[in-house]
Structure formats: C-alpha cells, structure tokens
Write a structure and sequence with these properties.
single chain, 145 residues, alpha+beta, 2 domains, 6-stranded antiparallel β-sheet, two-stranded antiparallel sheet
Length: 145
C-alpha cells in the first residue's frame, strides 16, 4: 500500500499571483523570499566566518614571526644557505645578530648585492630570511662569536 500524499495549497507570491511547480503531479509551493530573520542569520554566519579567518591569519603570522631572530639572538648556519636561532650559551651558536637591514629584499637582490650590513661595523656576514608566503625577505647582519 502506498503512502498518502499531502498537498499544500500554493503560497501567493509578492505580486499576488499563485505559482506552483509540478512534480509527479503534486503541487509544491514557490520558495518564499528571505525574511529578516534569515538575512540576520546569514549576516551573522558570514561575520563569524570572516572573524575566524582573520584570527587564523593573525595566529599564523604571529607564530611564524616567533622564530625570526632579533638583535642579540644567536644563530647557526644550516646547509648551504640556511640558518636557525639557537641559545647563545650552546655550542651550536656561531653568530650573534648585530643588526637588521631596513626594508624587504628579494632573494635575487640579496644575492646580487654586497653592500648589506655596512651600517653595522661588527657584522661579518649577512643572512636573508624569506617572509612567509612572499618573495621578499629580511636581511640580518651577524658577527662571529
């Protein structure tokens, strides 16, 4: 035995005319325009998603900058061109950061120039660290320990 079908009367549109869709011979009401309550919910959800995305981006930025060296920090070289911050009291420490060049530079600009760190007389090497999700980076000036 088949289930009984329930038919709702068509809902009037804002223009006052009745419009229905036919699906298997059953009349279905036309979709109603969004109400103020629905619009508020949509706006609130959009605001929440935007706020969560902003908080996420700020958190990623803060966490990625925690490993950036500051003046006075010690570093050691890793591989051919990398470096990492280490404890100044450890045996791994090779250099101390004595300054930071102003402005961001590309890796090519860093590789092509020899004038970096001239403002820091104790600096013996310059180190370049890329900014997250960017082709630019920061130039650090370091002195041998």
């Amino acid at each position: 035995m088949s289930q009984p079908r329930y038919v709702r009367p068509p809902v009037p549109r804002t223009s006052g005319s009745y419009e229905t869709r036919q699906s298997d011979g059953v009349a279905a009401p036309e979709a109603r325009p969004p109400t103020k309550r629905r619009l508020r919910r949509l706006a609130l959800r959009t605001l929440m998603v935007t706020a969560a995305g902003t908080v996420g981006l700020v958190a990623v930025s803060v966490v990625s900058s925690l490993n950036d060296p500051a003046v006075g920090d010690c570093v050691r070289t890793t591989g051919a061109s990398g470096f990492e911050v280490v404890d100044c009291g450890s045996n791994e420490a090779q250099f101390r950061i004595v300054g930071v060049e102003g402005g961001s530079r590309t890796e090519k600009e860093f590789a092509d120039s020899t004038g970096f760190c001239s403002a820091f007389p104790t600096a013996e090497i310059s180190l370049w660290e890329p900014e997250s999700n960017s082709m630019y980076g920061t130039v650090y000036c370091a002195a041998k320990l």
